[in-house]
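Notes to self after the call with IL:
- keep both proteins in one doc
- input above output, always
- annotate only the second one for now

Protein 1:
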Amino acid sequence: MVVITFLGSGAAIPSVWRSLPGILVTHEGLNILMDAGEGVQLRLQEVGVSPLRLTHILISHLHADHFNGLLGLIATMQLLNRVTQLTIIGPAPIRDWLPDLPFLNVIELHESSQERVIIGSEKFEIHYITAYHNLLDNAYSLLFKKPVGKFNPRKAKELGVPVHLWRRLHMGESVRVGNRLITPQDVVDNVGNPYIKVVYTGDTAPGDNVIAISRSADVLIHDSTYLDDMDMNEVHKLGHSTCIDAVNDAVKAGVNLLALTHVSYRYGMDYWNRFMSCAVPRFPRSIVALNGLKIDLAPS
């Protein structure tokens, strides 16, 4: 199961009801933190996750509200004598901001208008594309491998497929049995998408790059800094989106669920209702991020 936990969903200035950006995504031993705003260590403690368990940290961009918690987090890992590798991914020149420690593996990203693979393995992949902010911002796509349909053991037996190859076929791989190539379509009913896909935009105005990386996402976590009471041209000049922008990107990308985040400090404690009222009539599968909100994505 893939679990998304919102550690913070605010923008620039923290408040008692909205911490600064931080999203934890977990799946089968992977603990991926997307952005590390001020206070992220305390938020991790509140959800029971030690910094030593983090496997990857993805920084969307180098504005303080997304980045200021990272150095303290690394310092805590050092004090706890971390030895296992931690991969930190972010825009250049992120390496210049980080200490030179044996457990850190730093990957710097440069501008790209095409979706690119950063990490690819049998279990999961991380992709990125450049979004639309006022400095280099990465929109990330996390793809977690899942069964591609309902496995049919009768078909597998008829084709002489050894049992030890069944899982590979169920997970969407083709295998060879003697001189024959057996595909998932041969032994799996209702073959569908082999991934659970989670997309996070960071800070961004709406646009084609965001739509491209978000296509058919199970969850799109989209910048929604402002309500639709703002001048959209001014919002876009700042490199941000309104709730309507986020909805439009979600519709064009054909996502299953839209999560609005990065809500401006100007909106008070009633912000949840106001953003839901903006988004849901236009895209019913919308939610607004809250501190501690969890989304469970079970393979179907």
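Protein 2 (the one to annotate):
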Amino acid sequence: MLKNSPSIGTKRESSLHRSLKFQYSGTDGETEALSGSYICDGRTAGGELIEVQTGSFGPLRDKVKSLCKTEKVRIIHPIITKKFIELYNNGGEFVHRRKSPRKGSNWDLFNALLYAPEIPLIKNLYIELAIIDLIEKRIDDGKGSWRRKGVSISDRFLAAWHESVILKSPRDYYQFIPFKKKERFTVKCLGEKAGISTVLARKTLYVLEKIGIAERVERKGRAYIYMLK
């Protein structure tokens, strides 16, 4: 029995996921590509497998480890720089459109890697960050999250594709740390210098420790001191 199937893979697929799947598979490639007992989002004309992952990489961990024993795999992870929210009433009529105040950044990758920090170490695999703008369609149907006051998220659409950032090996992750080798820093220092939250800085250093880029060298009070390897 297949571990994935076309019906499972596409039934709940968002328009964003579908757009990126077709874009990165290419006109001469294929989508819903079979490799052993797995179905992947796509395969390029050159034979590279494509996996589009909009959320955590945790669910991909075992799959890509298995695939990369015999195949080359590229994980496409969208980074949303701008999000536009379109609200519709329960009858499908457009109500209004607004721009979300939240802006994504490349650092969001470490939220996705938190539960699969070893993925950058896998041979034959690399990660591509797709820098995009997004349209999120919402419906005021009373069935959504209480935080959105019952408004449901109906779909997500690719509004614009800007560029990509390719991470082929652990060494490529040095670009995220604004410190020189042998320079000591804390989680708080990283957050302040990079302009990210302390929570995200802590997640980042957790991942970078796991892939051998950063290490804890000592502890002062309640704070750990880090250095780049």
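Annotation: The CA atoms of residues 134 and 159 lie 5 Å apart. The helical segments are 6-11, 15-25, 61-67, 109-113, 187-194, 198-210.
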